Each structure stands twice: as structure tokens, then as C-alpha cells.
Amino acid sequence: MKFQATEDKVKLSGRTLLVEGTRYLGFSGSSIEFTFVGKKAAACICSDAQNWGEELRGRIAVYVNDGQEPVRRICLEEKEGLYTLYEGEEEREVTVRIMKYSEAAFGKCGIRYIEIDGNRLCTPPSGKKRKLEIIGDSITCGYGVEAENELQPFHTATENPEKSYSLLTARALDAEVNLVSWSGNGIISGYVDETATAPSDRWLMPEVYQYTDISCSEMLFGNEESRWERWDFSRFVPDIILINLGTNDCSWCKDIQERKDVYRDRYGEFLQYIRKNNPGAEILCMLGTMDQRLLKEAEEAVRIFVQNQGDGKTHFLALPAQDPGDGYGADWHPSLLTQRKTAEIVAEEVKRIMGW
User: Which of 41, 22, 54 is nearest to 82 (CA)?
Assistant: First the structure.
């Protein structure tokens, strides 16, 4: 039996884009999940592997039943290929989850169809009661968390959202989660080097957040922005939204107060947009793991927003700087130990806010 990854047949997690029957997993941690009775399942997956070197190709992980670790990790090396997801000796009921490990900016992942032996496809797995959305950058994606040390350059093979504070927090809270995260991204600038004379302002998070998947949309429709799918905020209504943005802005703002003030003001504007589209959600803003130079401005943005909007459901959390003794991931990113420590802090704060 062959079937497409439509909502009547699979459970969706994260922002996913459906175009002509192909389900695109773009953001880190986005996934589909289905249950069937049989011995084997495979998926026909397309990618744009030809556009990337091996170090930037799309990567997925496959989970079976309630397993905490993937049974397979797959690099998408073909334009279109049939990948085995599960194979067993006896016919039984099996739940399979395909999760995007690499992030939206690099190799794509489009699920053309899923194929199972026999025709016993079950009702899709049910979702969790609690809902969490996390907006962030490389830290949220799990950039380099599996690298041996800080001297290793970026590689999608060492990127793992399941080991980032984001999905660790969701697991601790037993919550469904949407990650809208993108390495090098920010509020007024993406990451720039020390010699930059202008900010990196293409596809900053306030724009990315408006779309289901801006990267896949551009791949499919080019510059026809009218065809890019705007995110329908009714598709996922979070109980609480976490925002972890500012680390990359620091590279542009440095210690220049005028730039810091622009960051603060734009952050406030972004909060207004988030609140407009998520009127019932609590919002928790956080910053500090890799760079703390914008902590004051981020906290000010929240304070001004709360004061001007009378919004008592928006909060701020200063995160501790990563400890060199805990090691580093690729390019000085947080190690697994740092990610775990961050998850503990964030989960406790969410519990306090939500009364969970």
C-alpha cells in the first residue's frame, strides 16, 4: 500500500509544507508519524542533494514505537530515493516517525509517499495535550551538538535537535513542539564577522516566522512570493512560546548602543506580531548562552512591551553563559551538557509560568 503524508494518514509535528502531494519537512525537529500493521515500511523521499556538498545535505532520523534513540539516521544523497524505514521478521503493529535533523537552510526533505507491505494503515497517533513553540537560532536547532569539540566546522551530521535544549525541554514537559529555528538568524541581523560594514538582513526571523517554510517555498516557486505559503496560526495553537534570539545580533551590534537600541525596538515589534497571532499564549523570551551583550536590551524590549501593551503574559529569562568546563560543540556552540543544563532551567521556568 502506498499513501501520501496527508493529515488523515499521518500525525504532523512542526511546520510542514504540502505541495502537490509531497510533504516537505523543513525546520529542525519537524516530523511525520504513522502506525501500520506489517513487516516493512519505506518512504520515497526527494531532496536537492545535488546543490550541496556532503557536509550540508539534508538528514533525517527514523524512530520506531517509543524508542528514545533513532533506529536509522539517513543522509539524503539522491534527488529521489526509496529509503527503508522499518523491517521486521514478524507482522505486528508498528509506529514509525521520520524527523528532520538538519535545518531548513540546507538540504531539503520532501516525502513523496510512504509504502507499507499489506494495506493495514492505522489511525494516526494522537497528539499531546500541551503545546510549545520555540523560535530561535542555531542553539535551538542543535547545531554541532554532536561534534567532538569547538574546532570542528559545521556539518549537518553533527546537528541534532533531539539533543538541543529545545526538544529536551519539550520532552521534559511532555509537550508537542514546533521549532521555528534557523542558524545564524536574528532580529536585526544574522551572524556577521568582525569586518562587516552592514548587517546580514536577508530572511530575518520576523520574516521567516510569517511563512510555513520560506526556504522550501523559494526552492519550489522561486521569486514568486505570492505563491509562498503564509503560516496559518490556527494550525498550531501553543500554550507557551519561547523566543531565544539575539546571539547573532550581537555580532553586528557589538557594544554600539545605537545598534543595540534598534535591536530592542525591533524585538518589541516582533513581540507585537507574535501576540497578534497568538493571543492566548504565554511568551517567554530568553537569551545568554553564547553571548550576553544584548541581555539588557532584550529584557528592556520585554519590559516596554508589557508596559505599553498591558501584557502580563510575557516574561524574560536570562540564561547563564556556557561553562568552558562543560566543553563545546562545533564552532564554539553549546555542548550536550550545556544543552541539558539549559533545558533544565527552561523547563522549570515554563512549569512555574504555566503551573504544570
Answer: 41
